What we know:
The chain is mainly beta. It has three helices and 15 strands.
Amino acid sequence: MNSAARKKAFIKLVFTAVIALSVAASPLLAGESSRGGTFLPMGWSARGAGLGGAATLLIRDDRSAYWNPANICFLFSPQVTVGSTKPVPGLDNWYTVLSAGTGLLDVRTRDDDKPVMRRVGVAVTATHLGLELAQGSGWNEGSLGLSFAFAPNHYNSLGFSLRTMKSWTDIEDAGAWGMAFDIGWTAVLTENLWFAVVGRDLFSTVKYPNVDESLDPLLSIGLAYIGLFDRISIESDIIFRNGILDRILAGAEVQILDEMLYVSGGIDTRYYGGERMIPSFGVGSVLTSVEVALAFVFDPEDAFGRRTLASVGYRF
Length: 316
């Protein structure tokens, strides 16, 4: 079977998988799970937030450790990103993230010898959330993660992330620790059309002093068109929580000055726990090896309200 025939058969397999995953989502993810506040993603990447969270395909660098670990293979050189946000305006609280990753081994190339991704990608992540509670009490949550990706060929990759969490406070019997496991798969259907499936918190445990719980597993199915008019990339993700439609994400990013300046916008339409739409927009600049990004998320019905996120990345 030649390369074109293999690619055609692979695309058929992808769409068969989409149908199977959609049908199977409910029995796979049903069951009781934690409603607690752990592993809180309160600002992972200003660029991803500007896209409304539709970033399982449009982000393909060290930040993929959160959005989709399979995309770490698209890192051709080491990159480090630091980001921060104030989750609750008016209170003394900060959420900070750090990610670092790189591609390893040989480069996967297309039939026309154009490089696509590395054979292997690795990344590490760390987060910290600090809150000042009533009467001067403090609450902190930190997490560490390790991600690994492998590309068996030039048109698909698989990734895995293991995340650990520890929370501590001066309030008695309120600390916890836990771990969670994520899986991601990215398929390059054509040069412009990409597909991804990401399972977050598929296997998890959170241990409190008096009880053990698990997190709600999430299944995300994403489709993106990259390079429309050589400047526009769009993505839409459908996310299931416990087999029930949780949200639909849509985002677009436009390159203004040949990758030196980009703007983005997105909509997060939520259905689980009450329907509402959360708009966001972002702006970023890439100068030589440095990327600076800002994002603004507006959710007046949520406790966090309007949030501003900032991040700085450096590629070696």
